[in-house]
Amino acid sequence: MAKRAFPLLPETGAFRYGYFVPTVAIDVAYVAELARFRLSPEEIETFGSQLEQVLAYVKKLEEVEVREVALIGEEESFQNRLRPDRPLPELTRSEVLENAPQKADGLFLVPRILE
Amino acid sequence: MSFAFSTIRELRKQLLAKEVHPTELIESLLDQISSVDPKVKAYIHLHPERALEAAKKADISLPLGGVPIAVKDLISVRGEPCTCASRILEGYIAPYDATVIERLRSAGAILLGRTNMDEFAMGSSTENSAWGMTHNPWDLSRVPGGSSGGSAAAVAAHEAIAALGSDTGGSIRQPAAFCGCVGLKPTYGRVSRYGLTAFASSLDQIGPLTKTVADAALLLESIAGADPRDNTCDPEPAPSFSAKLGEEIRGMTLGIPKEYFVSGIDPEVEAATKQAISHLEGLGATLREISLPHTAYSVASYYLVATAEASANLARFDGMRYGRRAKDCDDLLETYGRTREEGFGREVKRRILLGTYALSCGYYDAYYLRAQKVRMRIRQDFLAAFRHCQAIVTPTSPTPAFRLGERAEDPLQMYLADIFTIAVNLAGLCAISLPCGFTQSGLPIGLQIIGPMRQEETILQVGHAYEQSTDWHTLRPSLS
């Protein structure tokens, strides 16, 4: 994959419903590369405009005052819980490999990553 | 009369009185399925032989002994497919039981089949399934809601006595409302998520879809409680959720949030909800107007938090260890890229894109972090409101079931279908949806009762009081 800086695109907009609705441009093809899937040219176009609408909608979160919000609460539900570090019965190797798309000699067979 | 139309509690009495054998019960349900499922399409895998085999050996002395339960296709059942309605898991066979499945088995329940859903629980209509759409039993041209649409439709069409679903932003309650059955989203942590395919780990919860409130309590009793295999599971033992059923609600204060009765809500839904609220007042409850000022931000917060978590959770579907792998690829990146391109449907791709974007360098603070902080505000709204009331009553969905295809390519409109249910997940609360009327054209309307964390008994008590003094839950779709 080509290495490049994440593009900070300028805000754009469109006339919809008779007035100007700001949209947030998103480089869908590049985000798809990050997410490790390919898109067809049709999907790049359609998802681009759909996600721009969604991103324009979520901009309303900027209206909320959040400077004093801490992301931890006082309740116990925010505390980490640990369990004793003891091995429990687990799946066997052959059970785990049962669903492998390709396997050999009790191992997963995967595409070569080193030349 | 077919046993398929009974509730869990009715069947348990009949089973214990030996008026019915579990095998007859399964046969009754299989008859109903073969007569209506070609129209409704609620099930995606059915295991008649296995269910009949289990029925022969059923121990009816157990709490759910002999009772068949349908399970949404994203909960692992050992030896059965668990496709999450996605092509990427085509052919996958779950090698272990989810905790809820272990518990259903030890409670004596019989697993009948797997219900349809939106792919990876992403959707509000069950249209995003790789295996085709499910139809609303009350009007086959409409959606059953989603994402647990198959479970809700199966219960409403009497193809299941009860079912399990999962709720990340309304995926149990909204289909329950659209199909005219009962759906309960337990408090976050009440039910173990071990074996539930993760969509958004901080929001997901498994819960029951049933014909009555009392059945929801019974099914929840069997699946809830601490589980060392899920560290987010509440270590407190689950109480008896049926304990307060039948207690009167006189003297209880119910909060009515003004932000939930605003323009945009369907007039028939609004009228039915208000009538239900008056009915609760007639049963002796005190009504109090409350304010949840950040309600308008819940959908925006949710679609960043949930998609961010989804983009991380769904990274595991890479074609290496299980599921589908694209053929004839030259290298690793092409294998990932084509496997995920071919395996994921459009809505899953959209959400992974949105979540990846929200988490990416330069956007994390502006989107994900801000969304989490707004989530805390929403939570604080509820904590403040529950100082003045024991439960909050709202519509479940702003509209009744919409037509198949109507919102399929308008993601934002689809997301807004969850506007009344999403805040409950963001705040980790419990809530139940139950039938409270029908539109002129015969579509069910759902009433949502929201409770504080760990107060399932309260919402079940209020729901039961309403249900037992109305007869909406006794009506059946004609399916003609």
Report on this structure.
The complex is a heterodimer of chains A (115) and B (480). With 115 residues, chain A is α+β, with helices and mostly antiparallel strands. Chain A has a domain at 11-61. Chain A contains 3 helices and 4 strands; from the N terminus they run ββαααββ. Chain A has helices at 28-34, 41-58, 93-97, and strands spanning 11-16, 19-24, 103-104, 107-108. Chain A has a two-stranded antiparallel ribbon with strand order 1-2. Chain A is flat, with a radius of gyration of 23 Å. The model of chain A is unreliable at 1-20 (pLDDT under 50). Chain B is α/β, with parallel strands linked by helices and 480 residues long. Chain B has a domain at 3-251 and 458-474: Alpha-Beta Complex (Amidase signature (AS) enzymes), CATH 3.90.1300.10. Chain B contains 15 helices and 11 strands. Chain B has an 11-stranded mixed beta sheet with strand order 1-3-2-4-6-5-10-11-9-7-8. In chain B, α9 (298-313) packs across α11. Chains A and B meet through α1 and α2 of A and α9, α10, α11, α12 and α13 of B.
Class computed from helices, strands and strand pairing of chain A:
alpha+beta
CATH-scheme architecture of the domain at 3-251 and 458-474 in chain B: Alpha-Beta Complex
Spatial separation of the terminal alpha carbons of chain B: 19 Å
Q: What is the average per-residue confidence, as pLDDT of chain A, rounded to a whole number?
A: 79
Order of helices and strands of chain B: HHEHEHEHEHEEHEHEHHHHEHHEEH
Oligomer: heterodimer
Uncertain segments of chain B are none
Order of helices and strands of chain A: EEHHHEE
Shape of chain A: flat
Number of strands of chain B: 11
Q: What fraction of residues of chain A sit in β-strands?
A: 5-15%
**Strand segment count of chain A:** 4
Strands ordered across the widest β-sheet of chain B: 1-3-2-4-6-5-10-11-9-7-8
Classify the helix fraction of chain B into a percent range: 25-40%
